[in-house]
Amino acid sequence: MNGHVRLILTLHNHQPVGNFDGVIEAAFQDSYVPFLNVLQDFPELPIVLHISGSLLDWLAKHHPEYIVRIREFVQRGQIELLGGPYYEPILASIPRRDRIGQIQLYKRQLEDLFETRVRGMWVPERVWEQSFAGDIVEAGMEYTLLDDTHFRNAGLNEDELQGYYLTEESGRLLKVFAGGERLRYLIPYADPQDLINHCRHMADRYPNAVLIFGDDGEKFGVWPGSKDHVYRDGWLHRFFSALRDNKQWLHVTTMSETVDQVSPIGRIYIPDASYREMTEWALPTEKQTHYRNLIAANEQRHDWHSIRQFVRAGFWRNFLVKYPEANEMYARMVQVSRRLEEVAATATQGAATQLLAEARRELYRGQCNCPYWHGAFGGLYLPHLRNAIYSSLISAETLLERASGRRGHWVDIQAEDFNLDARKEIRLAGDRLIAYLSPGKGGHLYELDVRQIRTNLLATLNRRPEPYHDRVRQHAGQPASDSGGGVDPNGGVRFKQPDLDQRLQYDAWPRKSLVDHFLQPGLTHENFTHGHGEIGDFVEGVYLSKIRRSDERVEATMWREGKLGPFQVKVTKTISLSSHQAGSLEISYALEHLPAGLPIHFGIEFNFAAMAASAHDRYFYNDRGTNLGQLETINSTTPSSRIGLVDEWLGLDVSIDVSQPASFWTQPIQTVSQSESGFELVHQSCSVMPHWEFMAPADGTWRVTLILSLDTSAAQARELAERSATRFVPSLESK
Q: CA distances (Å), 646 to each of 457, 610, 642, in order?
């Protein structure tokens, strides 16, 4: 055997912005630390490591000793660090200025912290568009890593993928490595000897080839069953031992050493792509199922190996079409980014400059990719990740208001295309609240930001079909498992709660607020929860609108003439925000042209996200202050003038007061989603609907006023107490 190959082992360690400390701590103990413990015993084996900036920030705060340890590996040449955009955004999802800014910021951070030169970078989720090449080079990077799938999409065959290529954009050259999908599936599942045999086969077939493994470091200890397999059963130690034993022909190396010693294979332009699974997930649900069936039906063809590379799935950006909630975050992020550039162009004072730097950091945090899409892991379906994105974006915008000189109590109103649908939305803003209305879609209130607690109470998520729901149905009756693990490599399925097949339900309209329902008289709550009883066309109908403003009050009025059964009626709703009552919205409704003397059943649906369920300190209450149960409670109340929701952890009290007593229906909106720990039921929002049944007046007009109040005094009191506690910490001498 005369062949010789280079092997580059690249690990990508990442935790999302907003992930729970306990989850990250478990990954630290189960994966990040034990991996270094094993690597330390093999000083002759170098690896390439990418730590996302969000994880690095957490490590610096919670485990600075780990940073010191990584620095030691770097200084002795056993770890090459890769850079990348600081907070792990999908490059396609952020403006070009932010791509370059994030990469440059993280490069400086790594070089300062680890006293090393950072030459290459990790592309988040390997989502690639050719224009990125120029941005990456402009940000100071020489090379990066993509999958061999990207190169196959460009028409290359396996024997052309054993190394790296040059690509360029506007004359800026970038070196791009082709990571092997086969190695991604073998490591760490195959027996180490089988991996050596694979490398030997490649050495014989492609002498002097460069083999690249690049995948999540969490495969080594966090993924289901991997901790025992990799560490307790000694897989990693045996793998490293096998690499050391075969060092005569199998040279474990780094990207930097390779580009310095090995010539590029050639030049290539890489089509828009990501790793294969990601492109499947980006397809609409029905097309995803069709695509998988198509692949399965053709895999037995004798010529499939030559056809497969020309069969492609979806495009990452279409996650923003597949999931409107992802587009809402994206559009909001773009808006904040644009606003930051506008303020930066005029800010010159030192204090404003500091505020801009803080705002830019918050914007970058709000670009973390994880909740902008959904695949095998929770992603978009995890409320705490969506909440973290909005928290950073709201914080960034508030900092920008300060940087632009806005102080005290104020209100403002604008009409622009805020969500990129070619229609104008309305934005009411003040020093405490920001509300977005969509006249073109039901006149909905689709975002409601509470500045004090940096929370969007309408970061909701609809229940919709997913391809894996078929598997949930197929395994109906399987008991819940608390042993951890999601969909395992052998096709097994684990459920975190029982009877999830019975919880599959899909929404017929967006779970937002100010959703206007004309319902069948006498309709029961149970029938409504199953989507029955709608007899109007106002839920998603187009409303006309106008705005009014003064220094102390702004308001948006929206109206629509539509159908109530066979009748034509008109609904007008006016939403007002006052600088004197900056923590509440006044909402006035007028129903006109009602058919006199006929029974009317009208409801106004609200949804509240970011307020968790199944906790004793999160609950409903009525106008008498009576506790109506935790926030996942299904209620159908007798008529009253108020309903409230309290989240003591957030320090938030939300109340809806009505001028005409209403019955209130409440229900949880819960999704069945797929995550690394199994199929699970996730609480997304509380649906609260005041509804009225009455006989239409003789003049055909009925009115009601609602006050939506958001009280954050508990959060403010807690914040003041925490600040006071940190001002004076008794020293030992003072005791």
A: 13, 12, 13
